[in-house]
């Protein structure tokens, strides 16, 4: 019985598709938050308040939009995933690292961004999976 279930669940292409679309949607959602709620100028001010150049905020927003779309459609998936890793590492180091591990801590700890980082690395290792525009 378990063997039959394992065989039915053996769908690495589908797994990669689910992971990349989920990651892509999450990045687009967070880019949307920076664009429509915080505003790009407000995001740049926040970056400045934590010691980063304000202009970097615009690069992060662009990376989240372009990377999110690339992941969703399956274009240059390995590259898109790897390009977003520094964004998440920056989030851990500059925004959430001092708040402890658990994301439920005040200000949000680094648990959630670390999970995203690992998921991006896994995506880069396994590629785009099913229904990707490219074979990567």
TrEMBL record:
The chain crosses the membrane at residues 12-38, 50-72, 79-102, 114-134. It is found in: Cell membrane. Keywords: Cell membrane, Membrane, Transmembrane, Transmembrane helix. GO terms for cellular component: plasma membrane. It is a multi-pass membrane protein. Pfam families: DoxX. InterPro entries: DoxX, DoxX-like_oxidoreductase. PANTHER family: INNER MEMBRANE PROTEIN YPHA-RELATED, OXIDOREDUCTASE CATD-RELATED. Belongs to the DoxX family. This is DoxX family protein. It comes from Paracoccus alkanivorans.
């Amino acid at each position: 019985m378990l063997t039959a279930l394992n065989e039915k669940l053996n769908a690495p292409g589908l797994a990669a598709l689910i992971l990349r679309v989920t990651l892509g949607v999450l990045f687009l959602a967070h880019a949307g938050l920076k664009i429509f709620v915080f505003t790009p100028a407000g995001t740049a001010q926040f970056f400045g308040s934590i010691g980063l150049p304000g202009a970097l905020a615009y690069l992060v927003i662009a990376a989240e939009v372009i990377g999110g779309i690339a992941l969703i459609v399956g274009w240059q998936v390995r590259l898109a995933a790897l390009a977003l890793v520094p964004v998440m590492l920056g989030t851990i180091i500059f925004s959430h690292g001092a708040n402890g591990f658990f994301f439920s801590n005040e200000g949000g700890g680094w648990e959630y961004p670390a999970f995203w980082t690992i998921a991006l690395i896994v995506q880069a290792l396994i590629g785009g999976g099913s229904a990707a525009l490219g074979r990567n």
